[in-house]
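user: can you give me the structure for this one chain? tokens are fine.
assistant: on it. calling the predictor now.
[tool input]
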Amino acid sequence: MKSFLHHACNTLRENLPLVIVLALGAVLLFSLVGCASYNTVHQNAAGQQVRCATSGWGWIGAPYAAHMHDKCVEDATARGYK
């Protein structure tokens, strides 16, 4: 058993740069993936409707989709939609 552990530790030590690169790559990949989708319908007193729908993916796209949806809702509210 000691020989197996000794071999495993030596293998890990020899391949440590590769292990670090793979771990950092996995962290980067998981931070860039993901998506967001927002969809709301607003109606005014006359019964007319307006839809605010946005979507985005990744580290930049998902927060941007949320921002654009909030802006659409703000604009709709300013025009009398609830």
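assistant: here you go. Strands lie at 35-43, 49-57. The longest strand covers residues 35-43.
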